[in-house]
UniProtKB/TrEMBL annotation:
GO BP terms in the entry: glycoside metabolic process
InterPro entries in alphabetical order: GlcNAc_PI_deacetylase-related, LmbE-like_dom_sf
Keyword Ribosomal protein recorded: no
Species this chain originates from: Actinacidiphila alni
Cross-referenced Gene3D superfamilies: LmbE-like (3.40.50.10320)
First and last residue of the signal peptide: none
Origin superkingdom: Bacteria
Keywords assigned: Zinc
Pfam families hit by this protein: PIG-L
Protein name, per record: N-acetylglucosaminyl deacetylase, LmbE family
Xref: SUPFAM superfamilies: LmbE-like (SSF102588)
GO MF annotation terms: hydrolase activity, acting on carbon-nitrogen (but not peptide) bonds, in linear amides
Amino acid sequence: MDDGDQKPRRILVIMAHPDDVDYGAAGTVARWTAEGHLVTYCVVTDGDAGSDDPDVDRSWLATTRRAEQRTAAEIVGVREVGFLGYRDGCVEPGLGLRRDLARAIRRARPHLVLTHSPDRDLVHVKASHPDHRAVGSAVLDAVYPDARNPCAFPELIRDDGLAAWTVPEVWVRGGPAIDHHVDVTDTFPLKMAAIRAHRSQGGQSDDFETTMRTRLAALARTAGLPEGRLAEAYLRIDTA
């Protein structure tokens, strides 16, 4: 899908934790929804390990982070947010996760899926959280071959009535390879508002906004955008 494509598309964003999409791609999502595309979120975990406090009530944290993600989604124009309920920090790209993701894909029937890169980035290590890489790997397996193959997980047809669906394009973020940038200068305020909705995770200070602006400005320069522009970056994969 090219930037500025005005024909409405269905887009499914699959991320490991609440807030992953907002730190990494909320500017892009806000552009998409403003252009009339239908964006749906699928969050694999509840983020119940997202605390520096070993005594935190993890049930409370999971409930809080779900609510924060729903609020952040509304800010950038996303109305549907689903959670798969996997344990934070323990995600593995096995058959169970592949089945659940194939189910989510067949339900949403997206023209594009956005997710994590399955590859480790040795320069920016934080982007390569084990859950991120596991989800990225499982998503690519769910896109091909699982979601499109009617013989894969036949219970999805038998029990859920979900016919096979072919996703033609996947965008991944957080890996070592980049080949596409999205100008998010105009939606940067919405991105920051979505990040700040995750109050349990920080990101509230003016210093953090400056840091984020600096990062996106560097990506924009890499893309050859004019000075003062901001960008988010991806690797686009043809999966048709």
